[in-house]
Design a protein that fits this description.
about 20% strand; about 35% helix; two-stranded antiparallel ribbon; alpha/beta; 6 helices
Length: about 250
């Protein structure tokens, strides 16, 4: 049986593209399959490949709550796929909502900011208490800032390896076994991709509500200010994931 060569990327919102994650896979020889199950209200397990066919799994962000399975039934399919991927040792990355779904697949709790007495965390800020020994999150210890854009928070539990924090989010990144990571922040976002986000009225409104007038302009300016230092560190992080995908594919 040939080794799996497909990296499945699950999106939830058209504009929340994989950005730097996709760029990291250029020239790898891997096949990339990008799907949005939320566009198919009647999605079933048959709409997803079995984990045995995957060299890697990436689950992107979105405004949905990870527990809103009634409003978005496909999220249950994604949580089940993440649990299967963990059991099978498929290299996996969850981003923001994807990280929360990965956490739920492990039995962790995800709470709204209101439940925790916190508002939305939107903007560019550095990570704190970064585990420098981690091959994915460690390089970001030296990043001037990363992009935060979330309200819900993962509640860490005993036995969960928290890799980074910020002042208002206890678990900004965590390790789920030897080859799976959840990142609450948006490592994939480039200045150009952020421009696309901010061109969407819902994103611009959310930013203004959290940060006040001129939020979009400040976010875009901050993206360009941090990009020269952040990009090479992000590329180091994503190069490790690529190496895991490539190794599983036997390339």
């Amino acid at each position: 049986m040939p080794a799996p060569r497909t990296v499945l990327i699950l999106q939830h919102v058209e504009v929340e593209k994989p950005g730097l994650i996709l760029e990291a896979l250029d020239g790898s020889g891997l096949d990339v399959d990008i799907r949005n199950l939320l566009d198919a209200p009647s999605a079933s397990p048959a709409d997803l490949p079995p984990v045995a066919d995957l060299a890697g799994l990436v689950v992107m962000g979105g405004p949905m709550n990870a527990d809103d399975l009634a409003g978005h039934p496909a999220l249950k399919l994604e949580r089940d796929l993440l649990a299967d991927a963990l059991r099978a040792g498929v290299p996996t990355l969850g981003v923001c909502l994807g990280a929360q779904l990965l956490a739920r697949a492990q039995g962790l709790v995800v709470r709204t900011g209101a439940e925790l007495g916190q508002g939305e965390e939107i903007g560019w800020a550095p990570l704190r208490d970064v585990d420098r020994d981690d091959p994915v999150v460690g390089p970001l210890a030296d990043a001037p800032a990363v992009l935060h854009w979330h309200g819900d928070r993962i509640v860490p539990a005993a036995g969960i390896q928290v890799l980074a924090r910020t002042d208002t989010t206890e678990c900004q990144a965590f390790r789920a076994g030897p080859a799976a990571w959840g990142l609450q922040f948006h490592l994939e976002v480039t200045p150009g991709l952020l421009d696309d986000w901010l061109a969407e009225p819902s994103f611009a409104t959310e930013a203004a509500q959290a940060l006040g007038p001129g939020a979009a302009e400040r976010l875009a300016a901050d993206a360009r200010a941090v990009a020269p230092a952040l990009r090479p560190l992000a590329e180091r992080s994503l190069a490790h994931l690529r190496s895991l995908f490539v190794a599983r594919a036997g390339l």
